[in-house]
Amino acid sequence: MPVINDRISVLSEDFAADPYRHFARLRETAPAHYEPEVDGYFLSRHRDVKRVLTDHEAFSTATLQVRAEPVMRGPVLAQMTGAEHTAKRKIVIRSFTGSALRDQVRAVHANAAELLAPFLPRGHMDLVNDFGRPFAVQVTLDVLGLDRGDWRQLAEWHSGVAEFITALTLTPERRRHCLDCAERLEAYLRPVIARRRRHPGEDLISKLCTAEFDGVAMSDREVTALVINVLAAATEPADKTLALLFKHLIDHPGQLAQVRRDPGLLPAAIAETLRHTPPVQLIPRRAERDAVFAGATVPAGATVFCMIGAANRDPDAFTAPDTFDIHRPDLATARSFTAAAQHLSFGSGLHQCVGAAFTRAEIETVAALLLPLLDRVRFSPGFRYREAGLYTRGPVALPLDFTPRGG
User: DSSP of 32-89, one letter per residue?
Assistant: First the structure.
């Protein structure tokens, strides 16, 4: 029988306002909480989420055929298995590691400095809307080799794609809008892919166009799906992680002062931000056979939602899990951006996020640039903090006042 805690609905406005308030009760009273409206099971314990993400035979990514493929315009990496998955994942990973990553870090720094310049003399900036969102999109476009001048249009289409993937319920009108965004994005990419096939460069689209799998080049549909996959996966968490990092450091001035004195603590601060408030809150899987969690049976064919935010706050996995602490001994910063991470913010197992190392380098580069420039950084007067999102979650805005360096 499904376990329902009638006092909590994951789909309620109360839950949306602050899910963290409900996680402990879910873990204790309904660790396999069933939501009839979406016919899905929500798992909140660390050990259960880890089990689902690492047992690929019992819990497949088949749900993405409905949740992602229509707007990705083809199968995405997480849907693939075996040799195909290994080969295509390797192509994408090569664009986010090694010498490619070093080149990107330089581009990230240049991008961030350019975007930041107009705000520095003002002593005021909304870290989400003025900086974070445009920055995250433009950096991803650089990796793909797409025109940064088109970022606003591409961001608009991307938001439709993201909405389709992350909304648990969609009205027919919103569904049509999202599919329209995906079709327009595909039409934009079609001539780009044709040009890269004829004149490949060093960007990721060129690498996808020239790569072969089993001696056969990828089709335009396969390349398009992987490009949109990267656009969504690289853009969506980056601006949220940056804003959440600054939110937590401003809320903990002692830790902010330590990071300012020792930028070597930045990776720990980023890792703890990802653990404490993961930008990706839900990861869906399909149960391929009946599975039992805390005495509750999840039937074969059911959709299971791994609650990353709840798993990362499980006291069985972390000491004082609701406390933000960049020095926590159970975080293991060195492992926090690898498959051995104790937190589950990058997923786990075969389909762990390919961009984990890139996320670390990207956020670390930007934070190291911002911290010395934003002296006495603080929330703007009258600001009331608010987060939004059930599937992906982050601050709606983060208006900051600061003393410009030398000001």
Answer: EEEETTTTEEEE-SHHHHHHHHH-TTTEESTTHHHHTHHHHTS--GGG--HHHHHHHH
